[in-house]
Design brief:
This protein is of the alpha/beta class and about 210 residues long. It has one domain (about 10-200): 3-Layer(aba) Sandwich (Rossmann fold). Helix content is about 35%, strand content about 20%. It has helices at about 25-40, 70-80, 95-105, 135-150, 180-200, and strands at about 10-15, 45-50, 80-90, 90-95, 125-130, 160. The protein is globular and about 50 Å long.
Length: about 210
């Protein structure tokens, strides 16, 4: 059955590359491929490159003084699916990714009239790229943080590519895209769209 307009699922990718535009970004490329795969499930979406915005350090919904997080947060809350796309640096999520997770910490105290966090019922996925080890560690850190602030992670909720250690090849240098990464992206999109539709139809009960 085709979705009605008001049932249309929306996704938002937060790209956590350290590089502002117009520099090319493997994290952005993989994030956009997740959006393309979600499009196959009638999910529309957008990508925000955090480094292109003034996002202040902090753990509130608005740090003032030109902080652009409130506008990004509105997009997060309007989406049914949130994807965090991050590179690996020193075996860790990028500093920009950690900044985003810290800002999402504010959602712990933002609730609806029945005591549920505003992020309840939203699905989250992760996209990771790097030319060093650490994809599982990075996804584990991001999964835990997203779960803590109310998001639900589907089965196989990550897609990633990790190149040979200590080499200079990036994900964006690969043509064609590795089949395994493409297939995990397809699975992430299918499971995220499926779970988001279920949670939209049957929200979590009040705490």
């Amino acid at each position: 059955m085709e979705n009605r307009a008001d049932d249309q699922l929306r996704a938002l990718v937060l790209c956590c590359t350290l590089k502002p535009s117009p520099a090319t970004s493997s994290s952005e490329l993989l994030g956009r491929r997740v959006l393309e795969a979600l499009g196959g499930h009638d999910v529309t979406g957008d990508l925000v490159r955090i480094a292109d915005h003034h996002v202040a350090f902090g753990v509130s919904t608005d740090e003032g003084d030109g902080d652009e997080w409130p506008g990004i947060r509105r997009q997060v809350l309007a989406a049914d699916i949130l994807v965090i796309a991050t590179p690996i640096w020193m075996g860790q999520p990028s500093a920009v990714c950690k900044l985003v997770l810290e800002r999402l910490d504010a959602e712990l105290s933002e609730t609806d009239d029945e005591g549920r966090m505003l992020t309840y019922g939203k699905v989250a996925g992760v996209a990771v790229v790097g030319n060093e080890d650490g994809a599982h560690h990075v996804s584990a850190e991001v999964y835990q943080a997203l779960s803590d602030v109310g998001f639900t992670v589907p089965a196989n909720g990550v897609t990633y590519w990790v190149g040979e250690a200590m080499q200079g090849t990036d994900y964006q240098d690969l043509d064609p895209e590795p089949e395994k990464t493409a297939s995990t992206t397809t699975t992430l999109a299918a499971n995220a769209a499926h779970l988001a539709a279920l949670l939209k139809a049957a929200p979590y009960p009040p705490s």
